[in-house]
Structure formats: C-alpha cells, structure tokens
Design goal:
The complex is a heterodimer. By secondary structure, chain A is mainly β. Helix content of chain A is about 0%, strand content about 55%. Chain A has no helices and eleven strands. Chain A has strands spanning about 5, 10-15, 20-25, 35-40, 45-50, 55, 60-65, 70-75, 85-90, 95-100, 105-110. In chain A, strands 2, 4, 5, 9, 10 and 11 form a six-stranded mixed β-sheet that branches. In chain A, strands 1-3-8-7-6 form a five-stranded antiparallel β-sheet, with no helix packed on it. In chain A, β9 (about 85-90) and β10 form a beta hairpin. Chain A is globular, with a radius of gyration of 13 Å. The model of chain A has no long low-confidence stretch (mean pLDDT about 90). Chain B is mostly beta strands. In chain B, strands 2, 4, 5, 6, 9, 10 and 11 form a seven-stranded mixed β-sheet that branches. Classes of the chains: A mainly beta, B mainly beta.
C-alpha cells in the first residue's frame, strides 16, 4: 500500500460547486499534514496546513481524521481559477520526511 | 528574500553526459530535498539532507549523487545521463523542527536525448 493515497480524479465541477477531496495516510505517528496546489507542472505551492482541530482559510477547509487516518480538503464556491492538481502531504520515515500523494486533478468549468 | 532558487530552468543533455542541478535557499532551513516529477507518477523523493554534511537516499536515488557542504546549497549530480532521467526536478527545503511545510524552487526541466 502506498503511504499516501489520493483519488487522481479528475473532478469536473461547475463554478460555484462544493467539492471535497480525501487523502489517506499509512503512518499513524504522522504529526504534520499539508495541502499543496500545483498548476500545470509548475512548482507545488502551499495551500494550507492541516491541524488536529481543522483549518479554514476563506473558501478552503482542511480536516484531519486520525482514527481513520485521512485528511480532507473542502472547496466551497469553486472558481475557474481553482482548476489545478491538489497534493496532500504526510510525513513518513520517522516524522520529518514529507511524502506526497500523486495528486487530485480538479477542473472547474463555466 | 529569494527563497529556494534552482538553476538552470531548462537543460537538454545527450545520453552519457553528466551535469549538476543547483539548488540554494536563503531561509536557513536544515532540511533540503530533491524530487523528480513524471506524468502520472507524482513527486518522488531522490535524496534529502537534514543538515550540512548529512545526506540520505530517498525513493529513487539511483543515478544521482548529492552533497551538502553548506546549509544553503544542495546540488544534485547526474553521473551519466540516461533518457529515463528526463523529468522535471524540484528542490525543496524546510525547517527540520516543528510542523513546517516545504518551500519549492521553480523546477528544472531536463531532457535527455
């Protein structure tokens, strides 16, 4: 089993829709989690950190479920500009080696 | 504050040639890493370092060498380029302690003919 798994999608949604992605991780000792956004083979850019208590930043909400070992990203009121690949990150190898999922592709259409 | 700087941005090599991809960061990050990204494969860790003088292998280290003589620099060397090493290479860095995210460079697009 891959250590960090994501549904590759693509998720094809209309503008204004709410969309959610999940990401499962295998290292139960993981402490720090992140969501990154990547546009068309450009460098990944940090979207948000995922805290135990959840994290909200405008239209974006990240949640952590330790019991089931997954993190989620919720995007409300989707914009065309949200079209990108979303990468989740969980640490492996003793907690400081970040492992990336393969990414979930989001396409927001008019 | 330049962040993570990678050079060159693009490179074309012939099979068998060697070259060094440069990565420098000015944030005093202890942890630095190199990834390659291929279509459908996601980011795969090549090598990483937790401080000057310390390096270790990641998921796909074969054909690559690294060194970390200073905190700022983490060059990646291709010993004898092969077409299978055609990829986009990203360097990233972070503070080692605390729940800190990685910061990425712009990437180097490498083609091996």
């Amino acid at each position: 089993r891959k250590e960090v798994e994501q549904d590759p999608g693509p998720f094809n949604v209309p503008e204004g829709a709410t969309v959610a992605f999940n990401c499962t991780y295998s290292n139960s000792a993981s402490q720090s989690f992140f969501w990154y956004r990547q546009d068309c083979r450009k460098e990944p850019k940090l979207l948000m950190s995922v805290y135990s208590s959840g994290n909200e930043d405008g239209r974006f909400t990240a949640q952590l479920n330790r019991a089931s070992q997954y993190i989620s990203l919720l995007i409300r009121d989707s914009k065309l500009s949200d079209s990108a690949t979303y990468l989740c990150v969980a640490p492996t190898g003793g907690s400081y080696i970040p492992t990336f999922g393969r990414g979930t592709s989001l396409i927001v259409h008019p | 504050n330049a962040g993570v700087t990678q050079t060159p941005k693009f490179q074309v090599l012939k099979t068998g040639q060697s070259m060094t991809l440069q990565c420098a960061q000015d944030m005093n990050h202890e942890y630095m890493s190199w990834y390659r990204q291929d279509p459908g494969m996601g980011l795969r860790l090549i090598h990483y370092s937790v401080g000057a003088g310390i390096t270790d292998q990641g998921e796909v280290p074969n054909g690559y060498n690294v060194s970390r003589s200073t905190t700022e620099d983490f060059p990646l060397r291709l010993l004898s380029a092969a077409p299978s090493q055609t990829s986009v290479y990203f360097c990233a860095s972070r503070f080692l302690t605390g729940n800190q995210p990685q910061h990425f460079g712009d990437g180097t697009r490498l083609s091996i003919l």
